[in-house]
Design a protein that fits this description.
The protein is an all-alpha fold and about 290 residues long. The protein has twelve helices and no strands.
Amino acid sequence: MSEKVEFKKLREFGDIINDTIKFFKENFKPLLKVFVYFCGVFIVAGMIAAIFQQIGMQRAIRNMDVTNTYGKLAGLFSIAYFFVALIGILGYTALNVSILSFIALYIEKGNAAPTVEEVWGYFKYYFLRVFGSSFLLGLLLIVSFSLCLIPGFYMFPAISLMIPIMIFENASLGYAFNQSFRLLKENWWITAATLLILWVITYATSSLASLPAIILTMVSALTNGPKGLSNTVIIISTVIQYLCQVFMIIPIIGISLCYFNLSERKNSTGLMDRIQKMGQEGNPFPNKEEY
């Protein structure tokens, strides 16, 4: 039986990637259960809204009046479009809060997977706080990328750490903002590279799982031509796309490992916890010789 993943420890670049995949595989069933319980309603609602939005968009494109600019925009940006965006933000918040709460409880229970009921206690406490913070951080990231891209790339690792800090340290957004930059000091490049690899892995995994839908969409587009995609193809591709959100668990685990790695380098919290446990258990190096 392999040793369970310990979050509070120093790691090198490769160790973070390997332990992310290891934790995902070892805890896939309880993680999937938490994902379904807390994100399922947003996944289903997002699917329905996205299907109606894309079908409406196809209809608007087919019936578009090229002389009516306002009509074009009204057709493409319907009410369903804004429902998709809102449900997407709620779903992403639920995903972050549920998985980060799972990890916090996993650590608290001594590397044992928590139950859905235990995660619910954390979830209901943090959801609204994280939702409001995610909205503000999203706007900050958009503004940063709008300024010649470079500020956005600089801010991305720090913003990625802020939500984990809020949950793992039960902190406010203001504290998390300052703490993320403090942790990243002298470790920005390695953290940014780690996050980039994690997102590449997530994108590749999702793309592989979505390959049947991608092929079906391409075939339908070539076959139907100006008529656009059929409703059946839109429904199938949308359902697969939303189901693949389960792979978004991977970068959340990786970001958590990055946080604990940086925290350990600054504060040695994991080392102090282990020393304290050893002291509680008695002498960790008993003298085996008898006199």
